[in-house]
Amino acid sequence: MDFGLIRRNQAKPTQSLCLLGASGSVGGTAIRYLRRNPSIALESVSVHSSIDRLEQLIQEFQLHRVCISHEDAFDYAIDGLRSQYPDVEFFRGADGLVEMVQQSAADTILTAVVGACGIRATVAGIEAGKKIALANKETLVTAGPAIQALPAFAENSRSTACIVPVDSEHSSLFQLLEGQNLSHVHRILLTASGGPFRDWDAERIRGARREEVLNHPTWTMGPKITVDSAGMINKGLELIEARFLFSCRPDQLDVRIHRDSIVHAMIQMTDGSFHLSCSQPDMIFPVAHTLHYPEAVPEQHQEMSFPEAWPALSFEVVDDVRFPGFGLCRKAMEEGGTAPAILNAANEVAVDAFLRERISFSEIPEWIDRALQEQPIRNTTDLEELIQADEKTRSDLEQKLSALSATE
Question: Collapsing DSSP states into helix, strand and coil, what is residue 399?
Fold first, then answer.
């Protein structure tokens, strides 16, 4: 089968890569894989503010085109960088991400930046006919309706653009659904480790300290995604992404907590049977699959001995009382329009406030709920209108948080 955004018939194995978010966890995994597979050329990269990391990559991969997306970091470091690397073209900020993608000669753009700043760069890659290795879930959460409406994804489009998911759950779903008739699929299930609070009651979660929130039991990720995972909001965002990526109904999508993180996704067929996708919890599996797709990955990764090393497969329903942010994600997905954009923007601002110790962990979903109630929800496929909803939500929430801090 073909999906509207994936357009698998247009996909070709990656020969050259533009990596957005090289200093993050997914970007680090991609670099680790490229070192083992020099047949894929690293053509350009972006980092947020990790200048030391950027210099290492420039030297190791002989890069000539790089972006620093944090504008203050760019301004601080650029004179020294240009002096040391006169043959490198440097791009600045979110606009620089777009410019670098537009000028890139790479056939694949891996979007591993965190947050809504990746939207315009992803759109630029689509408009340039690139293969998009999508690890930036906010692109579809915030702008899913607009991405679906892009001319590249029209039924009779001749564009060579396609999207192949990198998130472990969506990559697993893609592999499960490929070749299936969606009318034969009854339910689509993402799995979640449950995060550090899977055994905590609601009262204890409300009092969680910063270091407890950032102590994920399975995955090593950046602080923003780790906070999202602790509140199950990350999994709610993945539901919204799956809604657009696979063109399925909200009532077909659900999540189950699977503590061992061996099963990454499941589909239930209309006859009641289940198909599961399993691997060790290592992002090397989806990263490699995406880069080589539609061909097979040419090597075996970490092997899972069968059946000795397998844990007992157990699954639990997500408790909306203990994880209210997850319920808000479902609500926004069902409402559609600008609701997911509002939710995502409010979450990003609230998580940042929590990491800065301006609000408690339990206040994150409270601020999201407040934004969903206060911001107007519009049904639109216009990219600028969706981005405006994102920006308006951020601005209003940041003002309210600033006013709250001033009174304390």
Answer: helix
Q: How far apart are CA 39 and CA 10, in angstroms?
A: 21
Residue 131 and residue 105 in one domain: yes
Distance of alpha carbon 245 from alpha carbon 206, whole angstroms: 33
**DSSP annotation of 68:** E
pLDDT in tens, 163-182: 999 999 999 999 999 988 88
Buried b (16+ CB within 10 A) or exposed e, 323-350: bbbbbbbbbbbebbbbbbbbbbbbbbbb
User: In whole angstroms, what is the distance from residue 368 CA to residue 350 CA?
Assistant: 8
Nearest to 174, CA basis, from 202, 141, 133: 133
Q: Are residues 257 and 347 in the same domain?
A: yes
Q: Which of 131, 151, 166 is the last residue of a domain?
A: 166
User: How far is C-alpha 388 from the geometric centre of its chain's CA atoms?
Assistant: 20
- Strand ranges inside 50-154, DSSP E: 65-68, 89-92, 108-111, 131-134
pLDDT in tens, 2-46: 577 888 889 999 999 999 999 988 999 999 999 999 999 999 999
Token pair for 235: 């999994």
pTM over 0.85: yes
- DSSP strands (E only) in 177-319: 185-192, 253-257, 263-269, 274-278, 316-317
